[in-house]
Write a structure and sequence with these properties.
Number of strands: 17
Structural class: alpha+beta
Low-confidence stretches: 1-61, 150-159, 343-372
Mean pLDDT: 74
Largest sheet: 8 strands, antiparallel
Number of domains: 1
Shape: globular
Distance between the termini: 7 Å
Strand content: 25-35%
C-alpha cells in the first residue's frame, strides 16, 4: 500500500482547447507507483460543463499517456571493466525495465522515468526516449560554458562537453513533448520527473558515472492554462569517488518512494539469500568481501559478473525483467543479459465515440487511475 501522503496526491488537469473542443476536469494519481497520465480526456459524463458546451460533448480531445522505466540500476567499477545491471520494478501494468543503451563503443545511457509517450485517442506514438537516446544530441554552444558539467578538480576542470550534448539533447526532446501539456500537473515536490544515468570510460581519465536529473516546471499563463517545460538538468558525478571514499557499488533507484534496500546494504545486513550465494562458492564470498571493504578495483570482471547475476536474481521479484552489460577497457560494450524483446502492444483508443475500442481496465489514464 502507498502511504497516505502519496495516495492523496492527484492530478486535476484542466485545459483550454480550441473552439471546437471543450473544457473538462479529470483526476488521476501522478507518478507515485503508477504510469504517468497527462493531457486531456474525452468529455462524456462531465456534468460541470456549461450548457452551451454540452451540445459539443462528442468532440474528441487528445489524451497523452507515458509509461515508466522503473527499477534499480547497479554499477560495479572493477579492475578491468564496468558492469551495469538493471532490475525492473513493476509499479504499474505497463512498466518498462530500465534499459542500458549504447552511446558509442564505451558509453551506456539509462533513462529512468517516463520513456514511452503515446496518445490513445489519436493512435500515435509521441516518443520512445530509450530508443531515441543515441540520436538525442544538441549542437555545440547550446548551453553556456557556465552550464556545462565539469570533471573533478584533479582533472583541471575540463568541461564534459559530450555529456552536455547528450543532456541537452534529451532536454530538448522532453520540452518538445511538454508543449502539449497545458493542464496543471501536481508533481511530487523536490523529486525529478526523469533521470539519465551515464556510464563510460573517458580517454585519459578513466571510468565515470553520472546522474542527470530533470525537473518539470509549470507557469500559469491564463486561468487553468499552463506553460509546461523541463528545467536544465542537474549533474551529479558518482564515479570516481572523492579521495579516501570507498570504491564499491553505485546504485540508483526509481521511483524513490518505497525504494528497495540497496544491494550493498543487504550485503552488510547479511541478507539470507545473499549469504547463500557467498556460501556456495569461495570466489563469490571474495567478491562480496571486496565490495564491502570498498575495494572493487581488486575484483576482476570474470568474477564480478557471476556474483552480480546471482545477487540480482536473488533480490528481484519473480516477474522482474533484468539486463546486464559490461564495458571492457579493451573490448567495449558487451551484453551479458540483453534487454527483453520489445512487447509493445497496439495503442488502445479512448472509448468515447460509438465503435471505438475500449481501453483495458488496468491501463493508466486520467479517467481511470489504476488501483493499488
Amino acid at each position: 500500500m502507498l502511504p497516505d501522503s502519496r495516495c492523496g496526491k492527484f492530478i486535476q488537469e484542466v485545459s483550454r482547447m480550441p473552439r471546437d473542443l471543450l473544457l473538462t476536469t479529470a483526476r488521476a494519481r501522478f507518478l507515485g507507483h503508477f504510469g504517468l497520465a497527462l493531457g486531456v480526456l474525452g468529455l462524456t459524463g462531465i456534468s460541470c460543463l456549461p450548457a452551451s458546451a454540452q451540445k459539443d460533448s462528442q468532440a474528441q480531445v487528445e489524451e497523452i499517456v507515458a509509461n515508466l522505466a522503473a527499477g534499480r540500476v547497479i554499477i560495479a567499477v572493477v579492475k578491468d571493466a564496468i558492469v551495469v545491471g538493471t532490475v525492473e520494478n513493476s509499479v504499474e501494468p505497463e512498466t518498462r525495465p530500465p534499459t542500458p543503451v549504447a552511446l558509442g563503443s564505451e558509453r551506456i545511457g539509462i533513462i529512468l522515468g517516463p520513456v514511452y509517450w503515446f496518445s490513445p485517442s489519436s493512435q500515435q506514438e509521441l516518443a520512445s526516449l530509450d530508443t531515441e537516446l543515441p540520436h538525442l544530441r544538441a549542437g555545440p554552444g547550446s548551453l553556456g560554458a557556465s552550464q556545462a558539467p565539469h570533471l573533478q578538480a584533479n582533472q583541471a576542470g575540463h568541461e564534459a562537453s559530450d555529456i552536455e550534448a547528450t543532456a541537452q539533447g534529451l532536454l530538448d526532446r522532453l520540452n518538445a513533448i511538454a508543449k502539449g501539456l497545458r493542464g496543471k500537473v501536481d508533481t511530487p515536490s523536490n523529486e525529478p520527473l526523469a533521470e539519465l544515468i551515464l556510464v563510460d570510460y573517458l580517454p585519459d581519465y578513466g571510468p565515470e558515472v553520472w546522474q542527470l536529473t530533470y525537473e518539470m516546471k509549470q507557469v500559469e499563463e491564463e486561468r487553468d492554462f499552463w506553460d509546461t517545460h523541463f528545467l536544465r538538468p542537474n549533474y551529479f558525478q558518482f564515479w570516481p569517488p572523492e579521495k579516501g571514499q570507498p570504491r564499491t557499488l553505485v546504485e540508483f533507484d526509481y521511483p524513490l518512494e518505497n525504494s528497495p534496500t540497496p544491494l550493498l546494504e543487504l550485503l552488510r545486513q547479511k541478507d539470507a539469500s545473499l549469504e547463500r550465494i557467498r556460501a556456495a562458492n569461495p570466489k563469490m564470498a571474495e567478491v562480496s568481501d571486496l565490495l564491502l571493504q570498498g575495494q572493487s578495483g581488486k575484483v576482476m570482471s570474470a568474477d564480478a559478473i557471476p556474483f552480480l547475476r546471482a545477487a540480482m536474481a536473488a533480490i528481484a521479484k519473480p516477474e522482474s525483467r533484468q539486463t546486464m552489460a559490461v564495458i571492457g577497457q579493451e573490448s567495449g560494450i558487451q551484453w551479458i543479459i540483453p534487454p527483453p524483446p520489445e512487447t509493445r502492444k497496439s495503442i488502445p483508443q479512448v472509448a468515447q465515440q460509438p465503435g471505438q475500442t475500449e481501453r483495458p481496465a488496468d491501463a493508466p489514464s486520467l479517467l481511470h487511475p489504476p488501483s493499488h
